[in-house]
Amino acid sequence: MSLIFIKRATLRDLPAIMAIINHAKTQLKAAGSPQWQDGYPDAAALKRDVDGQQCWLLVVDGQVAGTATMVIGDDPNYRNIEDGQWLNNQDPYATIHRIAIGAGFGGQHLSHYFFSNLISQAYHEGVHNFRMDTHVKNQQMQAIARSFGYKHRGTIYVDEQTSDASRLAFELNLD
């Protein structure tokens, strides 16, 4: 069994983070998804995540295997939702963004470890509500969200510079 854990990223991790993100962009393109094909996320966005202590790494046997950003607090992209509604608009929530697993780590269900650890971290900090979004063509992320009990709540629009800003919005509420 491998040693798998999460930790906050530092600026010295940016090259590894960018390599993982670039691998994910290639994978999304190969799957026919336009998500992340317009330059986003770029090094500046990821540096902001690291500086804000919102960027997390998945470490497997001492190697950085994945990256994700978890924001606890209001996400302006989630204020307006179409074709549905959020179940919980009262309590604080955590949003998991920009999650990706690096080359050489596929097929090990590491995204499940990563989500589980991120949810546990936020839960430990008193957050019991979670949101996420993904492109309609990102079937893999939709399957992961549903496997964790996230429910599709509607459509939101992201403020990224992209030709298709609509995203399926998901919510998970824990007691």
TrEMBL record:
Lineage top rank: taxon: Bacteria
GO function term, MF aspect, one: acyltransferase activity, transferring groups other than amino-acyl groups
Transmembrane segments: none
Transferase found in the keyword field: yes
UniProt domain N-acetyltransferase: residue ranges: 4-175
Keyword set includes Amino-acid biosynthesis: no
Keywords per UniProt: Transferase
Name of the protein in question: Acetyltransferase
The species this protein was found in: Levilactobacillus hammesii DSM 16381
